[in-house]
Amino acid sequence: AVYPNKIAEFFNTDLGSRMRASRYVVREMPFEIEIKASEVYAAAPTGELLLLQGMIDCYFEEDGKLVLVDYKTDFVHNKTEDIESLASKYRPQLEYYARALEKMTSKKVKEKNLYFFSVGRVVKYT
User: Fold this and answer.
1) E strand or H helix at 105, and its extent?
2) Which residues does 64 contact at the CB level (< 8 Å), separation at least 6?
3) How many CA atoms lie within 13 A of 83 on its CB side?
4) How far apart, in Å, are the Cα atoms of 72 and each of 14, 38, 41, 58, 109?
5) What does the pLDDT look like over 77-96, one tens digit per residue?
6) Which one, out of 12, 95, 108, 125, has a CA that is 20 to 30 A from the CA of 102?
């Protein structure tokens, strides 16, 4: 189900306003990068690689650098500790997305963001 009011709420945030102001916005960008298997599995043989594939929800350009946005639809109570716990869980995902973006675009990712639709909150990583 789509909730238009939740989408409008996002575009009324500072992050949503910045996205609207950008001249370059990309949505649903597929990617694949090779990573060392030991980054995911500590016991992996040295030199072993994994192919990581995924879909970046959105990124936009701002001042010549990229701003990454990942949307989350998890139900979360509007408690700071719940949001911070979830944000911590998703940090590695955003780090991989940023690596992939920098490799694909040769531009620096200056900021990584999660947006939790259930509570209308942005969590920003720099």
Assistant:
1) helix 80-105
2) 107
3) 17
4) 17, 27, 25, 12, 20
5) 766 677 788 888 999 999 99
6) 12
